[in-house]
Amino acid sequence: MMGNGMGMGWGWLFWLLVLVGIVLVIVVAVKAVGGSVRREGNTSRAEGGRPGRSRARNVLDERYARGELTTEEYRERLTALGENQ
């Protein structure tokens, strides 16, 4: 016989919590591994770029600001990126 049914009620709750815990561990692991990957064009001010600009454009701007590129080189590379001003 099954008894008074209390054991079944708590048993499914326990396994449900175990399942939720496993799912949470998987979600946290995926975010930890995939969190370092940045998508192109998804930049923010916190990253030092302007919203809507590609990472390549931000790097180009930084190099130009540091004086690593001449104005001519900067404009050529902007044209190559297809991001003329």
UniProtKB/TrEMBL annotation:
Domain of life of the source: Bacteria
Keywords, sorted A to Z: Membrane, Transmembrane, Transmembrane helix
InterPro entries, alphabetized: SHOCT
Annotated TM spans: 12-30
All residue ranges annotated as the SHOCT domain in the record: 59-80
Protein name: SHOCT domain-containing protein
Origin species: Modestobacter italicus (strain DSM 44449 / CECT 9708 / BC 501)
